[in-house]
Amino acid sequence: MNSFRLLPLFVAVSAALALPVGAQSLVELYESARTFDASYQSAKSQYDATLARADQAKAAILPTANLAVGASRSTQEVSPEGAPSSDRSFGTENATVSASQPLYRPGNWASYRQGLKQVDLAQAQLSVADQDLIVRVSQAYFDVLASQDSLTFVQAQKTAVGEQLASAKRNFEVGTSTITDTREAQARHDLVIAQEIAAENDLRVKRIALDQLVGKSDTQPQALALPLTLPPLAPDDVNIWVQQSEAEHPSIKQTQVALDVAQLETQKAQAGHKPTLDLVASYSAINNVNGSSSSTGSSRVNTGAIGLSFNLPLFAGFSTQNRIRETLALEEKARNDLDGAKRSVAQGTRTAYFGVLSGQGQVKALEAAEASSQSALDANKLGYQVGVRINIDVLNSQSQLFDTKAKLAKARYDVLVGGLRLRQASGTLKAEDLQSVNGLLAK
Question: What are the structural domains of the chain?
Fold first, then answer.
């Protein structure tokens, strides 16, 4: 019977999966999210602030200069014994320029090197935020596509169940089937309608999440081009991915910088026992107007000085020794944190790697299951026509087919996102990696 043919069904599915007008690619939505996402913008502002703070440490090894200017007016009353008193006013104007250049200050140089390490820390922190944004956008992007597919398959299933219901009613009217077939088809049709309502709501929620992430309204992600061949996992050795993570992962870089900073902090503490030496210079001019307290004539005094300032700490109440103990303990903590970060990253990388492998295996299995489910549906429909299968067999076969299609589509998306998560786990994820995924989308 023509009503059992699948051609109208696949035409409906193809039309529903057609690329909408004005659809955006993954790269386009990622670029939009970079300028809108609050978390990423916050990380970028923190990056700029860290760079500025790092530059501040350089001031400790550079010369300093100061200008001081003052003016005062005094009134002096003189009352000699046996003579009338007299008043006299005079003023003083002074200006001093002073400068200092550190020559030997180990603590200052340690602070300067800490500032340079802060630049590496800022870059690692921004890299973490960028990788996180790539994964969040990709996940939200494919969540929308998965919801769209689920809704499409549910609607196609509703159409197929509706045809089966109409067929059951016709067969009952002519007396070739029982009322049970009609009621089973009606129950399945009502169930599919409920599933359609849930799928529509899920798609609405997923679109809202993507819109909020990228700062656009009514986003329309481009669907994958079918038939689809997923890219192979390269390199195909988990140990290579782990080695890459030890060299590239931002979390490891951050903890390595923290260890370097802790070691420099120990050097700063040890510098508390060391002497300091500065080159100092000053020039001052004092202008006495109408004399001074010791003279009656105006005068001007210019004074210049240059020399060395040496300071040697002798005793500070054991604060320096205790500060060294503290920094050594913090240095050991940073070293343990680094070891922990390496182990955690290695474990996360292995987990992500085998997750992608498992996903690829699931895709192949579901592709085979899709073909088998299609064959089972065709056989059950044929059996129903000749009377060796009942209506519920056809309905179950339809449900299994569409459920398999939905799981297959979701598995493909999970593999693509899993590949990005693997690169994130190994610390090698970059915006350019989205281009390979973008190339799989329908144009």
Answer: 2-77+87-131+222-438 (1.20.1600.10)
